[in-house]
């Protein structure tokens, strides 16, 4: 299957992308991972992206598109893939269609994870990260530490990331509504969008997603 995963910040795209890709036996293609891989490997695209980011600028669409095109040309993506974080806007969606058309293939579906805005704010603004190990993540409501402000695992200090405040989250949601949400309408016109609720336990959302994809 060739799938695009979309949804607002805090919808659980990263978690669901990993689980869905494993269940469907297709590679999980994350733009964040692509940037990190290209930069760490010192590829031409990676060096270009790093120079742009080091200058405090946003990486232009054409660089991101080129990285995705290169990744989808790899052998493991020949029978399918799950795109997470791409496309982020309509221009990237059009470019993806062109890439796939050149290869004589097409998307099988676009899975839209739906979460109420207030729930997104609650999910993200409630996160607390351990200063000693960023993989130790807690939540004031859903996974509270035994002692407030202290990591259960290593005893490190828990803190709220600067981009996890309610004000910042609402700004990120505005950007999502303005830049990314229009791609849902773009794909709806192609009959590709299936929307599911991303509320509830992780495994239930995954089962919901698998069922929706099989029916699409």
Structure description:
Strand 5 (127-130) and strand 6 form a beta hairpin. The strands form 2 sheets. Strands 2-3-1-4-8 form a 5-stranded parallel beta sheet, with helices on both faces. A 3-stranded antiparallel beta sheet has the order 6-5-7. The radius of gyration is 18 Å and the shape is globular. The chain contains 9 helices and 8 strands. Helix 1 (13-24) packs across helix 9. It has one domain (2-116, 174-215): Rossmann fold, CATH 3.40.50.300. 48% of the residues lie in helices and 15% in strands. By secondary structure, the chain is an alpha/beta fold. The model has no long low-confidence stretch (mean pLDDT 94). The protein has helices spanning 13-24, 31-41, 44-54, 61-72, 90-102, 117-125, 166-180, 182-188, 202-215, and strands spanning 2-6, 28-30, 81-84, 109-114, 127-130, 137-139, 158-159, 193-197.
Fraction of residues in β-strands: 5-15%
Sheet having the most strands: 5 strands, parallel
Fourth-tier CATH superfamily name: P-loop containing nucleotide triphosphate hydrolases
Number of helices: 9
Overall form: globular
How many domains make up the 3D coordinates?
1
Which architecture name does CATH use?
A: 3-Layer(aba) Sandwich
Question: Can you write the helix and strand succession as a string?
Answer: EHEHHHEHEHEEEHHEH
Secondary-structure-based class equals alpha/beta
Strand order of the largest sheet: 2-3-1-4-8
* N-to-C CA distance: 11 Å
């Amino acid at each position: 299957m060739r799938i695009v995963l979309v949804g607002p910040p805090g919808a659980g795209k990263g978690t669901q992308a990993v689980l869905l890709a494993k269940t469907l036996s297709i590679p999980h293609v994350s733009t964040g991972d692509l940037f990190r891989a290209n930069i760490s490997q010192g590829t031409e695209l990676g060096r270009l992206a790093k120079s742009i980011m080091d200058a405090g600028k946003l990486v232009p669409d054409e660089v991101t598109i080129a990285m995705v095109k290169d990744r989808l040309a790899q052998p493991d993506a020949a029978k399918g893939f799950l795109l997470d974080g791409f496309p982020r806007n309509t221009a990237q969606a059009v470019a993806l269609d062109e890439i796939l058309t050149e290869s004589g293939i097409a998307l099988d579906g676009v899975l839209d994870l739906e979460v109420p805005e207030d729930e997104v704010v609650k999910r993200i603004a409630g996160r607390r990260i351990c200063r000693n190990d960023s993989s130790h993540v807690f939540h004031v409501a859903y996974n509270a530490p035994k002692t407030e402000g202290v990591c259960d695992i290593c005893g490190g200090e828990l803190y709220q990331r600067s981009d996890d405040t309610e004000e910042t989250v609402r700004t990120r949601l505005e950007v999502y509504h303005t830049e990314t949400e229009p791609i849902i309408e773009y794909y709806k016109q192609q009959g590709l969008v299936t929307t599911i609720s991303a509320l509830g336990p992780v495994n239930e959302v995954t089962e919901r997603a698998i069922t929706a994809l099989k029916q699409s």
